[in-house]
Each structure stands twice: as C-alpha cells, then as structure tokens.
Write a structure and sequence with these properties.
alpha/beta; 11 helices; single chain; 5-stranded mixed β-sheet
Length: 308
Amino acid sequence: MRTEQLEYIAAVTRLGSLRRAAEELRLSQPALSETVRNLERELGVDLLERKRSGATMSAEGRELLPHIVDVLDAVDRLRAAAGEQHRISRMVRVGTVNAATVPLLIPAVRDFRASHPHTQVEVVGAQQSEIHRALAEGGLDLGLVNHLDGDDVPAGIESTELLRGRPVVCVRPDHPLAARSVVTVDDLLAEPLIGMRTGYVMHRYVHRLLRGRGPSFSYSTDGAEMGKLMVAEGLGATVLPDFSVVGDPLERQGTITWRPIAGDTTRVLLMLQRRRAESVPRAAQDLHEMFVRRARRSAGSGQADADR
C-alpha cells in the first residue's frame, strides 16, 4: 500500500468523479482507475460505487474513510516535523447556501489562510439537501446551512449554531418600504418580491408567513448574495435572515437596507455542520474553529444593529 493510493481515493471521494480527480491529480483516468482498483484488491473491499453519474464512496468505503484520513494526516505531520518545505498541499471544502457568505465566511477564510498558507479552501454553493448529502459521503468537510428554529438535524451530522437571527425585508434605501419602521404581510403582498428557489429555507419561510396567500414573486434566485444584488439594482424586495444583511458591504455602502417584519417571532439559525466521525482532518478542525470564533465576534458586534 502506498500513500498516494490513499490520496487518490480521497480525491475521488471529494470530487465525486474519477475524471475530475484525474484532472486535478494530473493523471490519466485509466491510470487512476487502475490504482484505485489495486488498492481495493489489496484491502478486499470495494471502496467506490461506480455509476454513470460519477463515483461515490460505498458503505464499506465510508467506514474506512476516517482511517484513510488518519493515515494522510499522520503523513502530513511527519512531513511537517521533518521540515519538508514542499509538502503536498491539502484542501478543505466548504458547502454553503450563501447566507452570511460575505459577513462571516470571507473573514473566517481569510483568518484560516493566514495560518494555513499551503491549504486551499474550496467554497461550493449548493442547496441544503445537497450539502447534507455531500457531508455524509465525504465530498465536503464543512457545511453552512440555514435552519428555522425547531428543524431536525439529519442523522450522522454534527451541528454547531453560529448565528441566531430573524427574517427581515431587504430593500433599497429609496424604496417606499424603507420609510416604514416595520413591514407587514399586506405590504409584502403588494410588492414585487425576489424569492429564493424551492429547497431553500427562506422559500419555505415566506410561504409559511403568507399563509397560502399568493405573493407577487417577480424573480427567484439561488442564495442570498444574488438576492441582495438584485435588490441593490432596484428589482424588488427580498426576505433574508438579518445576519445575511447586517454588515454586508452593500449595506455598509448604503445600497441596501432592511426592516423587521411586524408581529413575526421566527428565528433563523445559521448552522455549521460536519459529518460525525472519529477522526477529522486537522485543517477542517481549524477552519471549524475559525468559523466559531468569527461568529461569536459577529454576534457581539452586530447585536446593536439587529436590535434597532
């Protein structure tokens, strides 16, 4: 068994495809496939389930993945202890539904890179269900998702609450709703709305808030960041967690603002999630800690703005 065999299987698991792993590793796909099959023969286990849509970890492979990670981390520690200057860079993959991407994710990643200059951080935008699936299969190390208070957490996923906020209406400062202290449901029904697509928590929240009354959705989009840009361009109003708006560069520049929703007590949670495992890569643990520290700082500095 060779270390690169374990690195190859980790790359296939992370990227979900032999082809993409071969491209990243600069190998031919047949050579990579044969290397993985040799490892499977040596272990006597089918590590991958090969389908037309790509390769994913088998159930047996998922059981062995923590041990593979242990070996690779031990190799990294050995290389570092030996003072090797050109050790192999590792990657941490973060899935996000784009809530609080700018106010939280960017500062956390910047802090992480300062202490881990050789580790690449890959940020993947996806829906919550896709993030949960990728965490379970080992394709993502961490996931940022929104929950409504009371939502269940999938089995096998460990969750840490980063931020707790409330839904607010995001508009331009020159929008008529910006002149009000609060926005009512009737106000929302009278405005063209920029909605999140099906599968996002805020899509579910808005339909629950309006209790079946048909909103005038003029646009729908994936994630908060595009929604805020569309608001800034004057296309309409959108409903987002306050922690996704407060402190955003567009809000600091005076391009967007927000108002609370009258009579609504719903709480939205930004959760940091990872797969339950006996062993977690050191880099992923460190980035997890960066998120927690940044969230505590953000919660403290943003509370006054959120309460206004």
